[in-house]
Amino acid sequence: MAFVDIRDLKKHSGxxxxxxxxxxxxxxxxKIQFLQVRDGSGFVQAVMGKQDVSEAEFNAAKxxxxxxxVEITGEVREDARSPIGVELTCRxxxxxxxxxDYPIQITEDVPNIDWLLDxxxxxxxxxxxxxTLRIRSEVIQAIRDFYxxxxxxxxxxxxxTPASCEGVSTLFEVPYFDEKAYLTQSGQLxxxxxxxxxxxxVVFGPTFRAEKSKTRRHLTEFWMVEPEVAFLExxxxxxxxxxxxxxxxxxxxxxxxxxxxxxxxxxxxxEQVTKPxxxxxxxxxxxxxxxxxxxxxxxxxxxxxxxxxxxxxxxFGDDLGAADETAVGMHFKQCVCIHRxxxxxxxxxxxxDPVNAERAMCVDVIAPEGVGxxxxxxxxxxxxxxxMAQIKKHNVPMDxxxxxxxxxRYGTVPHGGFGMGVERCVQWISGVxxxxxxxxxxxxxxxxxx
RNA sequence: AGGGGUGUAGCUUAAUUGGUAGAGCGUCCGACUGUUAAUCGGAAGGUUCUUGGUUCGAGUCCAAGCACCCCUGCCA
Length: 450
Description:
The chain is built from 14 helices and 16 strands. Strand 1 and strand 2 form a beta hairpin. It folds into 2 domains: 6-97, CATH 2.40.50.140; 122-278 and 334-438, Bira Bifunctional Protein, Domain 2 (BirA Bifunctional Protein, domain 2, 2-Layer Sandwich), CATH 3.30.930. The longest helix is centred in the N-terminal third of the chain and has 23 residues, at 127-149. With 450 residues, the protein is an alpha+beta fold. It binds one RNA strand of 76 nucleotides through strand 1, strand 2, strand 3, helix 2 and strand 11.
């Protein structure tokens, strides 16, 4: 007899089937045992009456601890009390692997996240990480399908790189035979060479940042999707970013209903993703923020008054701060594209705005609900002389980037792309508080284990 | 890197002015044939983060250290 996935049990109503899995929870008496079994596809209750099985089987079930792995044969029976509509009447029960004193309990008193992350290899079995990581899986598959269906070539960039792509951020240095290498912090420069060969490429892989960030938005190792397209200019880049986010969110809403429900995610803001994203320039956003700052200062809500104090802290001409992004998200209640930031706060490879030399042809997509920046992108500087000037200005070491400059020497064209942080996207969609819940084994400044 | 905070049983936590470290959950034992985070009865479980100091007496006060969390900055 073949094992049946718990999610498919309803199709076998009235029949005798075999399932295997782990005891998620159980309760019972001297005469009946209620065994909650999970197999990764779903949860079902197997009901074991004392007369249904041998005495040895009954006693084994009674003594089994949480997370014992089991094989159960039983009849699938419809029951209105079951959350999945069916139960199993247990006929045979076999223990595959014992489990005593399982450390993680099902409880209202949620242990702190650090304690749980120390046991992440086990915590993965619990409902909350299970739902979050299923959403992650769907998000990643949606991203891959989106680009595949649009004819993009999947273009893998190297993990070992010679030096900084952006010049400023801290890189992880690793010994590389007799030399030094660095773990990539972006595949973009390689993506740019890819798009000159294939037109439309997408880089999708892990990236590493050695910044000592200690916030709920940062990881030292995270996954990034980076499309790069030849002949695409800033408006087209915003179109692509918007279309991609819309596709990923609507598809996850459709296909992960149960997981979102398990996480008690209010999806009303996510559903706004079908509307066009407001596109606001940096200069316009400054005016809006000044207005919001004034408005929030008068609020009776102390949280808004505090936020008001933090808005526009950075001053005009500087990058936006976290409070600014929160205020923008609160105002629009959906994703917003902010474009044409001051050039001096952005990376060297971004194209100068032909209308205002102080501005860069770039765009950040800010997600609402306090998640902040999930996409950063730009049209790239395609002019050789302009690019060289920027490289010098930013002190990018020429000997590690000379190959990149070749792209402007041999048939340069307008082009651009963006990077989206997969974990931040998953964090937003699933509504989990911390980006570390959005990846199976998070790496942060103080955590490389398990 | 800067600012703020926390550390008591496996987990969540209480402990008045410095005066016997207590509870809920989990675990173990027992009861219960319809429980859904079951219920009821009982038991075990503590170097109060570490070291030093003040005191008749320290979970509580002081100092140093360790660990982690949150926020800011950097970014995705």
